[in-house]
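User: I've been trying to design a sequence by hand for this structure and keep getting stuck. Would you show me what you'd pick, starting by listing the structure so we're on the same page?

Assistant: Good idea, let's start from the same input. This is the structure you sent:
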């Protein structure tokens, strides 16, 4: 079975956005505000969903501690590459978990 899923790294609130932006080696290239981030990424998220049939597109809410621990465990810097990798890993976990729940419901 082929799994097609993509995750969008999603800051849960302004405080977490500011914290991770300040810690990111590419923080200067990120949106200056949480509102700017939300506006931009919402558009890309919706566009990707429209233009990628057959692909599950999920928002991956990034718990800062979990993300930072993931970066340490993988030996990755805090930057766009690690945000994409974290979102990808978490999206896959979400997808597999949802599939497992769906298949369990089917057995009832």
């Amino acid at each position: 079975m082929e799994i097609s899923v993509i995750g969008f790294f999603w800051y849960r609130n302004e405080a977490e956005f500011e914290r991770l932006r300040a810690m990111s080696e590419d923080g200067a290239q990120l949106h200056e505000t949480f509102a700017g981030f939300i506006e931009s990424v919402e558009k890309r998220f919706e566009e990707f969903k429209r233009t990628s049939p057959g692909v599950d597109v999920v928002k991956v809410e990034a718990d800062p501690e979990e993300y930072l621990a993931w970066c340490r465990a993988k030996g990755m810097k805090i930057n766009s590459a690690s945000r994409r990798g974290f979102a990808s890993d978490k999206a896959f976990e979400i997808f597999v978990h949802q599939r497992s729940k769906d298949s369990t419901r089917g057995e009832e």
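That's my pick for every position. To get oriented when you compare it with your attempt: DSSP finds four helices and two strands in the chain. The first strand starts at residue 5 and ends at 10.
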